[in-house]
Design brief:
- The chain is built from 17 helices and no strands.
- With 270 residues, the chain is an all-alpha fold.
- Helix 11 packs parallel to helix 14.
- It starts with 5 loop residues before the first helix and ends in an 8-residue tail after the last helix.
Length: 270
């Protein structure tokens, strides 16, 4: 799919600014979404189109819409576009997110009161911003998100009050954070990570698999491995080895059992 014309994108980005009424902003966001997202085939949006939006200067006004007292739907659309850009972000685009101060506003979209889709898009954007499309980890981004309060809000979204879609994305975003040793101790303090693997409280198997994957990374630190075992994770991990669980979940559970059961943690020491 060819990217939209630059002139059209620049005009749409201009309408996202503070000088526009909220209805104009919403219509501009809807137009951007219709131009750049490929329907059900790819929720992240077309790569060339997302790069063109970023190049048109969309990131700062999109972030500003999250900071303002914008209508809920405007924030949902803005978060959706930011997620699409983040999913396709190269090094220079990630720098634009940092320059715009995007991390704290995205974290705020995880809070209770946001629309469920806004929470989903925000969690996905944060996950994507933990690395770039070249596959390089961005430790400083992950640390900034954690400092903005992302972890307790993501753990809260794992709860049974959230839709399954939001639960699953929150779990996968915690996986992205857990892979960074600088954040491991913070996540380990959240006992809910073990509790989410209990099928009685969390029947959504995607959430339980995501929790197992996060715990596998956390268990690479010796102190965390001991804490995970003490929190009762072993029998819950064993349940994930059974039928009805995707191979990814079984592998994550087996990996966590292997590291936690040794009592030695992984390479990071204590």
């Amino acid at each position: 799919m060819p990217p939209p014309p630059r002139r059209e994108l620049r005009e749409l980005v201009r309408k996202l600014g503070a000088a526009s009424r909220s209805e104009e902003q919403k219509m501009a966001l809807q137009s951007i979404c219709s131009l750049c997202f490929d329907g059900e085939e790819d929720k992240r949006g077309d790569a060339d189109s997302m790069a063109a939006i970023a190049a048109a200067g969309a990131i700062p006004p999109l972030v500003q819409l999250l900071r303002q007292d914008s209508p809920a739907l405007v924030k949902q659309y803005a978060t959706n576009v930011l997620m699409g850009i983040a999913a396709r972000a190269a090094r220079e685009t990630l720098a634009a997110f940092t320059a715009a101060g995007a991390f704290a506003p995205l974290v705020q979209m995880l809070r209770p009161g946001s629309l469920s889709l806004t929470q989903y898009y925000a969690a996905a954007a944060l996950s994507y911003l933990c690395s770039n499309r070249e596959g390089e980890k961005t430790t400083e981004n992950a640390v900034a998100m954690v400092s903005a309060g992302a972890i307790p809000l993501l753990v809260q979204l794992l709860g049974p009050g959230s839709p399954a879609l939001v639960q699953g994305m929150a779990a996968m975003t915690l996986v992205a954070f857990a892979g960074n040793p600088a954040n491991a101790a913070t996540i380990a303090a959240c006992g809910a990570m073990v509790q989410t693997m209990g099928p009685a409280s969390y029947p959504n198997v995607v959430v339980r698999m995501g929790a197992a994957a996060a715990l596998m990374d956390l268990a690479a630190i010796k102190a965390n491995a001991v804490a995970i075992t003490a929190a009762g994770a072993i029998p819950l991990l064993v349940q994930l080895l059974g039928p009805g669980v995707l191979t990814f979940g079984q592998q994550a559970a087996a990996g966590t059992l292997g590291v936690s059961g040794s009592g030695n943690g992984g390479d990071y020491g204590d």
